Amino acid sequence: MTLAQAAGDLGAGLAMLSAGVAAWNRARDSRTGPLLVLAGLTWLAGDLVGALVYAHRGPLVHALLTFPTGRTRSKPTIVVIVATYVDGLVPAVARDSWTTVALMMAVVGVASSRAASKGVERQARRVAAACAAGVAVPLVLASLGRLRGSEIDVLATWAFEAAIILTAVALAVELLSGRSVRAATTGLVVHLAQRQEPRALRDALARTVGDPGLEIAYRVDQEWVDEAGQPVRLPVPEQGEKRIVTVVKDRGVPVAALVHDPTTLSDGTLTQSVSAAVRLVLSNVRLQAEEVARTREVAASRRRLVEAGDEQRRHLRDQLRDGAERMLAQVSADLAAAAEVCDGSTAADVRELVDELDAAAADLTRFAQGVHPRALTERGLADALRGLAQHAALPVTVRVPSRRFRAPQEAAVFFVCSEALANVAKHAGATSASIEVVQVGPSLVVRVADDGRGGADLARGTGLRGLVDRVEALGGRFSLSSPLGTGTWIEAQLPTAVDAP
Amino acid sequence: MAWTVLIVDDHAGFRASARGLLEADGFEVIGEAADGPTALDEVRRLRPQVVLLDIQLPGMDGFAVAERLAAEPAAPAVVLISSRGRGTFRTRLAGASARGFITKSEFSGECLSLVLR
After folding, report:
1. A278: CB partners within 8 A, 6+ apart
2. HEC string of A242-296?
């Protein structure tokens, strides 16, 4: 061994020893320090005792494959570590080139697999995987060289010793700085302090803990809500499912819950950081939740107003039928009977009175039908719309399913058609019109079209505006297209779900 | 006063998640157990008011544990839980010594409060 080779050998041993001591001293919860110390001692002992020349392999690989904690529960990892200890303590095995190649490939495979897994330790595991590859490559190349008969031991030894020194330095720096966790959590809090956006918290948190599927819910008024303030139910894991729920507390009070992979968020620093970040965005989430609740209440209130209006219309129609219409019919019948017993001009006057009375009764009936058509309540939308088309001032084709829908939806469709046809008759100068009602997915869609002059405008006239309000109050959408000279096309979409606003 | 609860489930992830959610809803989770015999020991030791008991436990199942608990002096209220729906256990639930049944897909502190009401 030349002086330079001896210096390199000593440097590698001392690097592991000193890095191990530093790590052991300052990162006491990690076993990486003691493992590096053991690797350094066995490396140096190998110079004195020939049987220990490969003994450093066990603790070195142990440190690399369990970095940064020095602990593992993974069975494949444990198998590879045990195999490396055995290999290192039995020189006859360690000298076998094929064994060395196989073992080093297993080491690199396990290290790569750990580097690809989720979790806050991912950055540290990547460093360890790079170091494992750096250590394994010279050993594999030297072994393959021996198998082919070429002698590259000296070069490989230099490369191996350089890799050992770099590994010792990299593991110690990574461990002592706590760089990955600290950088991630600091970045998370700073980022959120600047933006205070709940969505940013979820995204930043998912990136930080390496769990893209992470979800977050906030505790607002004894309820879990999402970042938009909408109430959510948190899923507990069922048989075979892995995602768990962690409740984040601030001074003992639950402020958020995370649904995440159980391998993430095991770090206490990170959990504290999450709690701090949640505090930053919680006021925004509360505001959004209040806004959502207010919007829902307004929507429900509008729907109740429309439904109450329909109910009043039905009540008025029934009162007209049972009261004024029936009384007019009775008076008309009585007068007709009186006319039979009168003479000459008196009888003619009475019959004229009866005719006027019948005309007034017919007007009243039409008015009552306009208030809320009986056919709609009793026979449904299809009959009511066909009746409407029959009494229209122009030919109207009707396509409508015969099934019944909920009363508010049926009433809205009917009044959209009724108002649209009234507008066609009054303003469009059309020769024909069409009504089409179809169920499209969860919506009831009504379209009314004519071939008139167009130019209808929602901003003018209260009729169309009233229809828009009615449709929107039921959670629907109203569209109008009325270019000059090409007719008017109206479409209303109404949700049919029972829980629609 | 908050209900004191013992969570019995062989799925550690469920126990941790349920603990967090129940505590957020004002329950006091005083213990956990992963199987029937441990659950019986913990009930005698901790005296919980409520036992949230998974039906599909290894060895002694939830129904058997509930029956043993019903024979205890000052028996706790037992609420059975399972990933499977009520229909799977309809006959056995009818004769079970339990206050109620909740599927895991519907589980929440609010749901448990309703069952205990």
Report:
1. A201, A216, A218, A248, A250, A255, A256
2. CCEEEEEEECCEEEEEEEECCCCCCCHHHHHHHHHHHHHHHHHHHHHHHHHHHHH
Both A246 and A103 in one domain: the answer is no
Evaluate if pTM is beyond 0.80: no
Range of the domain at A25: 3-177
Residues A87 and A236 placed together within one structural domain of the fold: no
Q: In degrees, to the nearest 5, what angle opens at C-alpha A191 toward C-alphas A190 and A194?
A: 85
Give the residue from B117, B114, B111, B112 showing the smallest Cα distance to B52.
Answer: B112
Q: Tell me, yes or no, if A247 comes closer than 8 A to chain B by beta carbon.
A: yes
Question: Is residue A427 assigned to a domain?
Answer: yes
Q: Does A232 touch chain B (CB under 8 A)?
A: no
Tell me: do A144 and A12 sit in the same domain: yes
Task: Decide: helix, strand or coil at residue A14.
Answer: helix
Q: Which of A142, A174, A155, A150 lies closest to A64 in space, CA to CA?
A: A174
How many domains is chain A partitioned into structurally? 3
Contact residues, chain A, for B56 at CB < 8 Å:
239
**Chain A residues touching B21 at Cβ < 8 A:** 234, 236, 245, 247, 257
Can you give the CATH number for the domain in which B1 is found? Answer: 3.40.50.2300
pLDDT tens digits, one per residue of A118-170 = 766 777 888 899 999 998 998 888 888 888 777 667 788 888 889 989 988 88
Q: What's the CA gap between A275 and A361, in Å, rounded?
A: 74
Q: Which residues of A307-330 are buried (b: 16+ CB within 10 A; e: fewer)?
A: eeebeebbeebeebeeebbeebee
Residue A332 lies in a domain: no
pLDDT in tens, A277-301: 777 777 777 777 777 777 877 877 7
Chain A hits for B108, CB-CB cut-off 8 Å, are 233-234
CA distance A114 to A106: 12
Domain that holds residue B56: 1-73
Give the closest of B21, B56, B107 to A247, CB-based.
B21
Q: Are B50 and B79 in contact (CB under 8 A)?
A: yes
- The ipTM of this complex is 0.85
The total number of structural domains that make up chain B: 1
Domain identity same for A167 and A210? no
Residue A255 maps to a domain: yes
Q: Do B20 and A246 touch (CB under 8 A)?
A: yes
- Which two tokens mark A154? 């000296």
Distances (CA, A) of A397 to A85, A154, A242, A416, A421: 88, 95, 58, 15, 12
